[in-house]
Amino acid sequence: MREATDTPPSSQRAVALAALLAATSAVAGCAAEAAPADVRAHGDVGTTIYGGERDQAATLSGVVALKVDTGATFDLCTGALVAPNVVLTARHCVSKNKSRTIVCDEQGRSANGDHVIGDLDPASIQVYTGADPQFARRAVARGKQIVRGEGNVLCDGDIALLVLDAPIEGAKVMPVRIGQAVRPGETIKTIGYGKNDRELPVGTRMSKEGIGVLAVGRGTSPSQTALGTHEFETTMGTCEGDSGGPAISEKTGAIIGVVSRGGDCSEDFGHIYTSTVKQQALFARALASASAVPELEAGSSLDPKSATFGADDDAPPATHKAGCSQSAAPASAGGSALAALALGLFAVAARRRSRQPS
Q: Residue-wise pLDDT tens for the chain (358 aa)?
């Protein structure tokens, strides 16, 4: 399960990433097949959908399961297709873990050193689709390249993109928010394949609606949750195994963040997502490498100059909620920006909720 360490005095909250869950039973959907001996929900930083429902929606076929091979066992994360051959997930899902605990301060800095020690072999990360993936069968795709930020700290940067060795046919690519700020009071839907409270096997896709955004970084939220500039806190919804799963805006249907880390699954606060907002450079690198064009939320653009709020150092504290509701970008579809991106892309050659992370 996910655990949180005791809250340090005032300015920072230590968030402990729970140890990887070990599930010795077969994975859901593998009834007549020989399932791997051990399935672990990511886990070190992972989370699961807590208080949710089984998800069978074909409209969310772009939410995929990531099976990370570790020999006789495998770790499980969640991801979302932002292009036919690009998956968005948490960085701890595609990294080698150094620490089972992530301690961050209200500036988005690590208080316990490095959290990861490099990337996993991309080919060890396999992608499965559907509400009840058949993990004993062949994956629909494997990782080819990992695109993530610099450094070995997960605070304020637990986000990555996995370029695949082949496009996934038939799955719906999901739009992404890049330009407009996440706002306290927004509601999201979250989806994942992790542990749940419905006694369904790990590997069953679950979803929950009506999850509220409580605070947006940078600073310490009213619940004493430390948040970095690119992080936001929500009410109850995730638990071990949902790491990397998308936070989907209930208003626009766009992904606005990925599951990173959190405290107790049953608590109605302290669940932390890394935002997709202001991640233009990261997405541009991955999409250029994949020769792909994304679907963006209206008002979003991959042009770094289009960011709707100032430099990271000027971002408002999480407790100043009025300041987090910065002016939104124009509500245009950004067609010209996408066209320019497409030309640029084709001109170029072309594991874990904070590995406690959930």
A: 222 333 333 333 332 222 222 222 222 222 222 333 333 333 333 344 444 455 555 568 899 999 988 666 788 899 999 999 999 999 999 999 898 889 999 999 999 999 999 999 999 999 999 888 888 899 999 999 999 999 999 999 999 999 999 999 999 999 999 988 999 999 999 988 866 555 666 677 888 899 999 999 999 999 999 999 999 999 987 766 678 999 999 999 999 999 999 877 778 899 999 999 999 999 999 999 999 999 999 888 787 554 443 333 334 444 333 222 222 333 333 333 333 333 233 222 223 333 345 5
Task: Estimate to the nearest angstrom the gap between the alpha carbon of 345 and the chain centroid.
Answer: 24
With 0-12 / 13-18 / 19 or more C-beta atoms within 10 angstroms meaning exposed / middle / buried, residue 157 is buried
- Determine the Cα–Cα distance for residues 288 and 290; give it in Å rounded to an integer: 5
Q: What SS3 state is found at 45?
A: coil
Cα(266)–Cα(282) distance, integer angstroms: 33
Residue with tokens 């959190």: 262
> What pTM, to 2 d.p., does this model score?
0.73
Token pair 């050659």: residue: 349
- For the record, the structure tokens of 90 come out as 């948490």
**Separation in Å, CA 25 to CA 35, 37, 198, 203:** 8, 7, 16, 11
DSSP 148-199: E-SSS--TTT--EEEEESS--TTPPPPPB--SSPP-TT-EEEEEESS--SSS
Q: Tell the residue number behind the tokens 């700020």, with chain if given.
A: 181
- CATH number assigned to the domain with residue range 14-277+350-355, chosen from the 4 options 2.40.10.120, 2.60.120.560, 3.30.70.270, 3.10.180.10: 2.40.10.120
Per DSSP, 314 falls in state G
Distance (Å, whole) CA 321 – CA 315: 11
Structure tokens at 40: 């672990």
Judge whether 346 and 292 are in contact, CB under 8 Å: no
- Residue ranges covered by each domain of the chain: 14-277+350-355
**Listed residue (82, 319, 28) closest to 195, CA to CA:** 28
